[in-house]
Design goal:
Blueprint: H1 37-53, H2 56-63, H3 68-76, H4 94-107, H5 109-129, H6 132-143, E1 149-152, E2 168-172, E3 175-186, E4 193-200, E5 211-217, E6 223-227, E7 239-250, H7 261-296, E8 298-299, E9 302-303, H8 308-336, H9 342-366, H10 378-390, H11 395-407
Parallel strand pairs: 1-4, 2-4
Antiparallel strand pairs: 2-3, 3-7, 4-5, 6-7, 8-9
Helix pairs in contact: 1-4, 4-5, 4-7, 5-6, 5-7, 7-8, 7-9, 7-10, 8-9, 9-10, 9-11
């Protein structure tokens, strides 16, 4: 790597920038040295696309724009599978799915969230619970990125307590009528389809009070999705505040496999491991930026990397990063063997997003003033980590799930 310099510059300004975004493939414990060839090919495909993007997503993040054509190209490259087992989808092992989440997030957190939303949430919901007719029409278009997919569970008043969702679905003749609001819905205003979770309001029916999922095309009358503005995190993907104003859909819009909130939880549990991998990608980018910067930045007549305090900080960051890698690899092995428990995925998410926060904070501090420049990406990753730390279950919710498992006692209110 080379450091840009100025010939004949003013005194005090010889270096014009630092090369801190290049890949270093950090793997101190060789956690990923024995990746099977099929998984490595998928990982390499993700790497190549991230490298191809260059500064494209950084510019989109800065401008708070969603370049949906860039995001949906992940589908053209067949990178949305997320480990979903379905005869119409390309098989991805849990390890391959994790590596894609990690690599795309290492490049850009907004694109990492696109993988989580389009693949982990929308595509998984359709593959697990959709009717043969729904899958015949929509599975390939969603998987290949030809149709943006959204997963609408969270509501303005119900985030951590999404089990208390208030959006209702009422029967009206042979149709269903949906009424309610959803918030923070990725791809919810992108012109595609939305999987809306709603509570059945039909006192005369046996399923009264049950939670069902409905496939809603976003151009359906009464569906209004407004892009949420003013975000300081994940600025390169649009998330929507959705109003469902008596949205009428046919009976065929119901996903027949959905019967209760447990079905929504099944999807969320499956994607929780993806968040742990995504956190690893963010932390990798921050650590590698800090290491590159320490080797290039000269202060007091020598590179920062020659200072004891800097080496200690880099060692602390590597410690965190290696632990995150071990969590993810073991989680993938357990899932491959069919032995991964939901709370084990919760623990990985709980640990890795917290660790990623620490790594990003240390990296930003090590870069000094240059750490807040978007061109060095650390501040962008630091901001995006705040979002993944919250979604798919906050830190507190993960702790309560784990605590209930290890004590046998529920502390949920």
């Amino acid at each position: 790597m080379s450091i840009p310099t100025i010939d004949g510059a003013f005194p005090g300004e010889r270096v014009t920038g630092y090369d801190v975004t290049a890949r270093r493939d950090t793997d101190y414990y060789a956690v990923f040295a024995d990746i099977p060839a099929a998984d490595r090919e998928i990982w390499d495909r993700a790497k190549a696309y991230v490298d191809e993007l260059g500064d494209r997503m950084a510019a989109a993040w800065d401008a708070a724009e969603y370049p949906i054509e860039v995001a949906m190209r992940l589908g053209e490259l067949d990178l949305f599978n997320d480990g979903i087992a379905h005869p119409s989808l390309t098989p991805f092992s849990p390890l391959a799915a994790g590596l894609v989440n990690m690599e795309v997030s290492r490049g850009d957190g907004s694109l990492g969230t696109v993988v989580a939303v389009q693949g982990g949430l929308a595509l998984r919901t359709l593959a697990l619970f959709g009717s043969p007719e729904q899958q015949e029409r929509w599975l390939e278009p969603v998987a290949r990125g030809r149709v943006p997919g959204a997963f609408a569970l969270t509501e303005p008043d119900h985030g951590s307590d999404s089990v208390s969702l208030e959006t209702v679905a009422r029967r009206d003749g042979g149709d269903w009528v949906l009424r309610g609001a959803k918030k923070w819905i990725g791809n919810g205003a992108s012109g595609g389809i939305t999987f809306v979770w709603a509570r059945v309001d039909d006192p005369d029916a046996a399923e009264h009070g049950a939670v069902r999922c409905f496939l809603v095309e976003q151009d359906t009358p009464g569906y209004r999705g407004a892009v949420i503005t003013g975000k300081a995190s994940l600025r390169g993907i649009h998330q929507a505040h959705i109003e469902l104003d008596d949205v009428r859909v046919p009976a065929s819009a119901v996903l027949p496999g959905t019967k209760s909130f447990k079905d929504a939880s099944t999807v969320l549990y499956s994607t929780r491991s993806g968040v742990a991998w995504s956190a690893l990608g963010h932390a990798t980018a921050c650590f590698e930026a800090a290491l590159s910067y320490a080797q290039q930045r000269v202060q007091f007549g020598r590179p920062l990397a020659k200072f004891q305090m800097v080496q200690e900080r880099l060692s602390q960051m590597l410690d965190e990063l290696t632990t995150m890698q071990l969590y993810c690899r073991r989680m993938a092995d357990l899932e491959t063997a069919g032995r991964l428990q939901p709370t084990q995925a919760s623990l990985a998410k709980y640990h890795n997003t917290r660790a990623a926060r620490r790594v990003a904070q240390t990296a930003r501090d090590l870069l000094g003033g240059n750490g807040i420049l978007l061109e060095n990406r650390v501040m962008q990753h630091m901001a995006d980590i705040e979002a993944i730390h919250t979604y798919e279950g906050t830190e507190s919710v993960q702790a309560l799930l784990i605590g209930r498992d290890i004590t046998g006692m529920s502390a949920f209110a």
